[in-house]
Amino acid sequence: MLTAFTAGLLLITVSELGDKTFFIAVILAMHHSRRLVFIGVTAALAAMTILSVIFGQAASLLPKIYVHYAEIALFFTFGIKLLYDASKMAAASCDADVVEEAEAAVKKADAQLPKRKTPWAILTEAFLLTFMAEWGDRTQIATIALAAGNNPIGVTIGAILGHSICAAIAVIGGKLIAGRISERQLTFIGGCLFLIFAVVAAVEGV
Q1: CB count in 10 Å sphere of residue 2
Q2: Is the distance from CB of 75 to CB of 198 less than 8 angstroms?
Q3: pLDDT > 90? residue 49
């Protein structure tokens, strides 16, 4: 359980910083109550984590040998892809495309809501924007893979804590921190983590 918790915490914390959901939280917190944005974003990420763990547990019902090799393949593929992406990025700065996507998503959602937003409207906006942005993201797939081969409770608690940490950073000091985040470094670290998990999964299956 401790291994699953640590893996979930590290993987999510590193992967989510500078991700689209991170910038959605940053932008929302600049215009609305930070507390409401944090609750909405964290609730969405927690719901997505629980859903991903359920998918992972369903996958674990397949023959163990298939699950084992699929887990290794996923982590190895993500690791190589992230390292390749990092090699193509600028030395420092956030990914402008990710920021623009987050801004466009928030702007579109704001246009569909009344000018005077109630607390419930802000919570709903934060929840739905974050949930939709996270769907199909690499962290969701990674969580499914982790839950398929590790303790589901440990993965769930670790991943939710990691998401909560990133959400707190985004809403409290996101605007200041976002400009200092090196997307290249985070992507490189994330790639290394995925490769480490691939090796650990391979060794544990021996």
Answers
A1: 9
A2: yes
A3: yes
Q: Yes or no: say if 89 and 187 are a contact pair by the CB < 8 Å rule.
A: yes
Q: Are 171 and 41 in contact (CB under 8 A)?
A: yes
For residues 28 and 106, is the Cβ–Cβ distance under 8 A?
Answer: yes
Eight-state DSSP code of residue 17: T
Each residue of 85-113: pLDDT tens digit? 878 776 655 556 677 777 788 888 777 77
CA distance to 64, 106, 203, per residue, from 31 (Å): 48, 11, 48
Angle subtended at Cα 86 by Cα 81 and Cα 92, rounded to the nearest 5 degrees: 160
Of 191, 194, 188, the C-alpha closest to 146 is 194
Most confident range (mean pLDDT) of 16-25, 150-159, 170-179 is 150-159
Segment 140-162 shows an average pLDDT of 88
Q: Give the C-alpha distances (Å, rounded to integers) separating 110 from 49, 107, 174.
A: 26, 5, 20
In percent, the amount of the chain with pLDDT more than 90 equals: 19
Residue type, position 120, single letter: W
What is the rounded distance in angstroms from the CA atom of residue 36 to the CA atom of residue 43? 11
Phi, psi of 89 (to 5 degrees): -85, 160
